Amino acid sequence: MNLRDLINECIAEASIKSIRPTQNMSDDDKKKSYEKLSSTELQQLRQESYVPYDLWPTFRQFLLDRSIASNGSLNPELTAYTPGETIHLLNNPIISGWLNDIKSFKVSDEFSKIVFVPCAKTKPWENATRGIYKDYNRVRKEHPNLFFVTISEPLAIVPQTLWNNFPQYDNPGLFKDTVQRSGGLFTRDFKTHFGVDRQYKVPFDESAYNKSIDILASTIRSFIENNRDKDMISFVEDFHGTSTHGDMLTKAGFTGKRLMKREKARSGPYDYIKKNL
To answer: Is residue 184 a contact partner of residue 93, using CB atoms and an 8 Å limit?
Structure first.
């Protein structure tokens, strides 16, 4: 990472860390924060290990404010922090329209291989100057026969030709790891921001998760079928076990070569991808 990249990374991280919980929310906004949770998730808010019911509106707004700090172009309506919220997001006209259209996307004949990669919080991805997409773009320039495709929740498929022109979303709600779902909050963060000396779990409805994966996998399956003339390889598997992206590819019936997204945690994927193409 060069000095400019390091500075940009520090600025972005400082911006996110500077967010503090909203102290005053209207009753209407509080009510809206519960509306897209599933019945299972609403019940979980009443259980000891989860974010308390009365804290949820402030907690969700805190997550949203952090998302916006990370991506100033984010559409707040295109956010989901639980599987139940994700179901509603997949029914949003912007997202459902995208899913319908992308099923018939055909990769140009100039490309011989499709490379599936995971999405990333830093957006957009075209000409990214930091993070994993900096490496993906580097590989693309060196191998013009490769066509990169992002596996995304909630967009399913984002072709490289649309990396600079897709709905700006944030959907950590399907991550199975509670720290990932909360945007990386540990016990010390809950104490700092909410005055509690413990780490709460974010609601997670397994049934809503499976339904969401089925919807996204259906779109990916159509894309794969529409481009079956291409060789395909994926670099989406996670070190933490079964990942959302991996589940989507499995249910989509992906039969290409499947590899880890990088050689080791926190390393850049450039050398690893080059070695395995």
So the answer is: no
Summarised one tens digit per residue, pLDDT across range 49-101 is 999 999 999 999 999 999 999 899 999 999 999 999 999 999 999 999 999 99
- Reported as a single tens digit per residue, the pLDDT across 229-269 is 999 999 999 876 678 999 999 999 999 999 999 988 878 99
Q: Are residues 176 and 210 in contact, defined by beta-carbon separation less than 8 angstroms?
A: no
Number of neighbouring beta carbons within 10 Å of residue 15: 14
pTM surpassing 0.85? yes
| For the chain, domain boundaries | 3-276
- At 70 the three-state DSSP class reads helix
Q: Encoding tokens for residue 19?
A: 């967010």
CATH architecture of 3-276: 3-Layer(aba) Sandwich (3.40)
- Would you say 85 and 117 are in contact if contact means Cβ atoms under 8 Å apart? no
Distance CA 141, CA 164 (A): 16
Q: What is the dihedral of CA 57, 58, 61, 65, to 10 degrees?
A: 180
